[in-house]
Amino acid sequence: MFFRFTTAGESHGKALVAVVEGLPAGMPIDIDAINRELWRRQQGYGRGGRMKIESDKVEILSGIRHGQTLGSPVAMMIENKDFVHWQEVMGVELPALAGTPQKPDRKGGLKNDRSVTRPRPGHADLAGGQKFGVRDLRNILERASARETAARVATGALAKQLLAQFGAEIRSHVIQLGAIPTEPLSKTWEEICAINDDSLLNCADEEVQSEMIAAIDRAKESGDTLGGIYEVVAKGVPVGLGSHTSWNEKLDGRIAQAFMSIHATKAVEIGTGITNAARLGSEVHDEIYYETGDDATK
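RESULT FIELD:
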């Protein structure tokens, strides 16, 4: 069975929900490790104000008993604490006004509902509003919000625990922010693992990280933002994941699709794929070699 998941929930709704399928029965689950990943998501210099409001904790609804998976779908919920201020706006029922349910106005919205009618560049507002024929773009932006990634982080925490059963590890780090440094950082596995949990930008180079922080401050003062590049590295990945037989089972294709579905991600590079476009084929072929001695078993 494929590891697969789906998420539900709006940014200011009652909660986010994730349903995960494909975990084998009898696998031990560390809930604290899931919450640790949720905590990591909320760290980092220059984060938005929403990160200060929420303090995400996962609640397991099904699929786990006495610390082990049952083999059935695992359902998880993450409460939106800010929902207390949005109960009427995002409530399931039609909100009441002086005891009488409000009626939609002639433009299709409700009065006093924090409606959004001006689409924001770089968001799903305009396309979503046109697709679903709604004037109030809150119907679009609430689901298109990056708040949804909290549910994916919880799902990813389960995936990490599954991979750990096979000796596979995942690490990540920021290698460029804006134009700092001029060339993305290249760090070893050991250097990436040595990054402290309290690192403000999860960067393996303290000097470069200080420059990045200064750049964030400058952008914030001018009312702007910065893009960047982060690298994800996997170690101990079993041979044979994915499949060469079907296009939708190819590992690099599935990885690229997963990353591109993250709201702010606009490009994915596998290895040195982009750089290789300017090289000869003989310069980029993966070498095949073997190791002897103790290294051969690692």
